[in-house]
Amino acid sequence: MLERSDSAHAPWTIARFNDKRRGRLNVIRTVLDKLTYENKDPNAIGDIDRKIIMSASEFLALKEVDAA
Known about the structure:
Largest sheet: 2 strands, antiparallel
Helix content: 40-55%
Order of helices and strands: HEHHEH
Radius of gyration: 14 Å
Structural class: mainly alpha
Number of helices: 4
Distance between the termini: 20 Å
Number of strands: 2
Strand content: 5-15%
Strand order of the largest sheet: 1-2
Shape: globular
């Protein structure tokens, strides 16, 4: 499904996590990072953990490695 529905104008963002707190914080960071607003402070948002938040292509590549 991801391969067919992921596109440049409507990309999927995958959130993989077991720790609810870390996962939720990274989802919030991702949303805040993508939005445009006044006085946006990247330091206040913090770094997005790329092991938790990834694009559909990164997720599919990870699944291929897991399957091998």
